[in-house]
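Predict structure. Input: Acyl-CoA dehydrogenase family protein, 403 residues.
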Amino acid sequence: MFNEIISPDLSDLPPETRKFHAAVREYARDEVAPKALELDLQEAEDFDWEIVQKGHDIGLTRAVIPKEYGGLGVGVLGVAVAMEELAAACPAVALIFGATMLGQTPILLSGDPRLQARFLPIFGGDQVALACNAVAEHEAGTDLVIPQNAVHARIVTTARRDGDEYVINGQKRFCTNGKVADFASIYANIEGYEGATGLTGFIVPLDAEGVTRGIVADKMGYRACLGSELHFDNVRIPVENMIGGEAEGVAISTAQGNMARSTVAAISTGIARNALEHAVEYCGQRVQGGKLLHEHQFTAGKLATMTANVDAARLLYRRAADLVDNQLPAPEYEPAVAKLFADRVAIETAGMAVSLMGANGFVREYGAEKILRDSYGTRIFEGTPEALSLAVTDCLYREEDDL
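Output follows.
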């Protein structure tokens, strides 16, 4: 697909960012898109290391890492425009790299040069390395990321200080890359704190004694990336692996989410763009009532709404990403709004594409049904609509209180 009119205009971005985007676009078009259906049909535990290695080779595993640690340093905006391109080909492949960046983000936010020097350079080698982020639990999801809910969190992974080490026990769920990552950024509650009020971040190498990689979720979409459980049984890690200080995990996780939401909105935008491209191609070939589908007023109205929404979603995520790159601390409102809008646009646009394609939209070989299944994924991670609505509303009333 990759319709040039629907594709983003990046003429206002720095040359380095445009060069990175061009490499990602070529990789998405030539390597990822042709394999998207094959990747979707594979078994839940299958993982295509070859396609990931090719993404690593163009810098996708180190895009957000500063140059002094072997990264590209393209910033959140550079990552976001790359995520749109990847998601337009296959959002699951985009998420493999996005989840790696998410696992790297707490290290970047820590401001700890020792932690950064130990864990960031591994992504600059010839061999691909991946990371993951471990937050969700069997009994705790949003309670771990909404500060006012922390006291209500149940059965949370714990960390106990023992001399120069922390001992971690618990279980995490839905860890994208958990089955294949080199390390995880995890959040555990310091023993003695109620609920998750003592939530603290740690870097845990996944080859550490006591770490078990659990089952891979058999998902309806995003099948090329593996979401698995991680089990921690008396896992000992040095104090130096703590991110920030004790009980600072909620603040770090919040900042991490504010940074990530614009890139997740970009993935949603890529999904919507892919749905639009499928619909444009189909409606430009299919004849009904003696006319091409796009010549019918009702169809034209749908296509116009779809393209307007894709453009609007792109503008929102680009504004949010630009602010994240240039504002400290990273803003909460703009990334939340961008994701809230783009997630809805992805689902609605995918649904419209299936509708316009009729029975063919329901058939696997045409690709639209995969897009529809994938469109629901981004609605869940980095904030459901319900959680985002609370964040946005909190910002609105916080502004009012400041007047």
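The mean pLDDT is 92.
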